[in-house]
Every structure is written in structure tokens, then in C-alpha cells.
Amino acid sequence: MIDLVADVVRIQRKSGNGPITVHCSDGLGRTGTFCAMFTVLERLKAEQVIDVFSTVKTLRIQRPGFVNDIDQYEFIHKAALEFVNTFNNYDNFKY
User: Fold this and answer.
1) 3-state secondary structure of 5
2) Rounded to an integer, what distance in angstroms lies between the CA atom of residue 39 and that of residue 77?
3) pLDDT band, very low/low/confident/very high, at 95 (cuts 50, 70, 90)
4) Residue 77 reports pLDDT greater than 80
5) Eight-state DSSP code of residue 16
6) In contact, 70 and 53? CB cutoff 8 Å
7) 37 burial level (CB within 10 Å; 0-12, 13-18, 19+)
């Protein structure tokens, strides 16, 4: 999933940093998981902070139901941890 985020960042840059569209069947669970993970990794790169709870809470203001089960919430935590643990592999992953 981290590689998917990196691919999206690269494609977005090539297209002039325009908006991206993310959607799953209900527009909440997997969409929210991707958006939250993207935001968590962006904040980690910019501020060296990981705060999944606040990220999901903030996203839910705009879209109630984002990240709609504990497995998705845990996945975001695990992805952030994986990113940190393999940072040397992703140190060229710029925002």
C-alpha cells in the first residue's frame, strides 16, 4: 500500500499536482483508509509526527464513516510503522 501511495504521488507530480480521486464501493472504508494513510505519511514526512487518531477524526468531519472498522484503523497504524521501519527504502519518497 505504501508503494501505491508513492505511485500516486509520482503521478500527481507529473500531472501538475492536481486533485486525485479515490473511491471504493461505499466511498468510506477503503477510501478513508487510503486517504488517512496518505495524510499520515504526508504529515510524517513534513512534521515527523504520526497521529492516526487525529487524522481519522479530522477526515470524518468532512466525510463521516471514513475508516469504518478497527481492521482499517489498525492497517493505517501498521503501514505507518512499516514506512518508518523501512525508511531507508523510501527516503526518496518526497512530497
Assistant:
1) helix
2) 12
3) very low
4) yes
5) T
6) no
7) buried
